[in-house]
# Entry
Amino acid sequence: MFDRLIDADFDAYLPAKQRSNVYNRERLDTKQRLGPLAEALSTALIGTDGAQLEASWSLEHPHLVNRKQVEAQHVYFSRGETARRALDTIIDRARGVASLLEDSTPQRSHVHLAVSLLSDRLEVALRLHPEATVDRQNLLRRCQDPYALAHLVSLVTSLPDGFVGGVVPDVQPARLLDGVALAEQLRRFGTASQQSASLFSFVRSRPRADVLAAGSGVVAMLAGDLAALLPLYRYCAWSRDNDFVSVKEALEKKQTERRQKGIVRGDEVRVVRGLFSGQLGTVQEVDPRGALRLLVGKMTIKLDAADVERRA
# Structure
């Protein structure tokens, strides 16, 4: 895949030790070469929460996830692992078990940017899968406001020439999408089943010959295309400052429940650590941070929910 191009143009992003060996090999694994480049590109990609988007890579070997075929090498840019874990507690409940077993990769559950290297072309894309429940609902709910929809239209039509998009497979040049067409695209995306192949996607594809002709300019080319898609990513991606589906409240509730360990007023508990370890008590009060007021004998003490366990 573009071996000579990668040798000539991407080597600058390799550590010196690896770079010194490049010319002693006929081919360096594509994933290994794209990795440092992806890390360099991600430094300019900042999400709605102010954090840098995290780079990850597709599998370079046949696996159940890629249906035992490797037709391309992908680099993905999306929210970091900590942010993903928080949302996955909500997303995984909406996904069926069969779907999770078929494909558990984060790219199916979160809006992302991607650089894809295929045998005949290089693609830069934004993709949002129907199973990316939070981001999908956030986009659809936000666009119910006519002014918000108009803003989305301006972002889409401002994409450089060469980008096509919409809901797969019904895509068209991004510059030709107006409010009516985009609203219809979103309506169909909103009714698409989570098992469907439909994607809300905007892609720029460059043929192999054009990429080779770009020479060392290919890095700036990728950076420019990703920068063009970044405002659209920020528009779609849920964050606490871009919340149109009240996920913030759901996450805070989940966090409170985790801190409180399901303990409520009136529960009989056993102290499992500290000075009163082994003592039995009755919960008199639980605050959102998981702090307890506990009646032990005739004494009232304060403990953390982590210091006790409910009696069976």
